[in-house]
Amino acid sequence: MATNAAPVQMRIASAGRQLAATAQSAATSLNRQCGQRSTQCSRTPRDWQRSTGAESPKHRQEVGVREDLNTLDGQIARLRSGIERLIDSYAEGIIGRSEFEPRICGLKQRVTDRRMIRRR
Questions:
Q1: Which of 21, 34, 64, 118 is the most interior residue, by most CB within 10 Å?
Q2: Binning pLDDT at 50, 70 and 90, where does residue 35 land?
Q3: Percent of all residues in the chain with a pLDDT value above 70, rounded to a whole number
Q4: Which of 58, 59, 75, 85 is nearest to 117 (CA)?
Q5: Other C-beta atoms lying within 10 Å of the C-beta of residue 6
Q6: Is residue 110 a contact partner of residue 79, using CB atoms and an 8 Å limit?
Q7: In a 3-state reduction of DSSP, which class is residue 120?
């Protein structure tokens, strides 16, 4: 029985080596193909942007305006939060009226300024 097992094991080992060689060959081929495709893919978005005008000065200006509006919205939100905290501090007696009034006026003026800039 031991004599039959040896040839079977040799055939299994041989088949394993053939399978490993085939897998290595397929992996090498795939790596070559992926390398070529990645070069092509990296060019495609730039070509698309040029053909659609996505990088035009007008497009960049529109993107800049949106970013500016988002920045202003964030500033307004932070100022309003500051006003709320200031009111809470005054209500809890942490600060007095003499400190509260100039600070609240300043914050409200800054909110008004940001809103005017945003409307333009």
A1: 118
A2: low
A3: 52
A4: 75
A5: 9
A6: yes
A7: coil
In this structure, the number of other CB atoms found within 10 A of the CB of residue 107 comes to 19
Say yes or no to pLDDT of 30 above 70: no
Q: What share of the chain is helix, strand, coil (3-state, %, to 5)?
A: 90, 0, 10
pLDDT at 38 > cutoff 60: no
Segment 87-98 shows an average pLDDT of: 96
The band of 99, judged by pLDDT with boundaries at 50, 70 and 90, is very high
Q: CA separation (Å) from 80 to 10, 15, 37, 75?
A: 79, 73, 51, 9
CA dist., res. 78 & res. 84, Å (int): 10
Supply the pLDDT for residue 23. Answer: 65
Q: Count CB atoms within 10 A of the CB of residue 118.
A: 14
* Separation between Cα atoms, residue 57 and residue 3, nearest integer Å: 81
Rounded Cα distance between 110 and 116, Å, is 10
**Amino acid letter for position 27:** A
Read off the amino acid at residue 105.
Answer: C
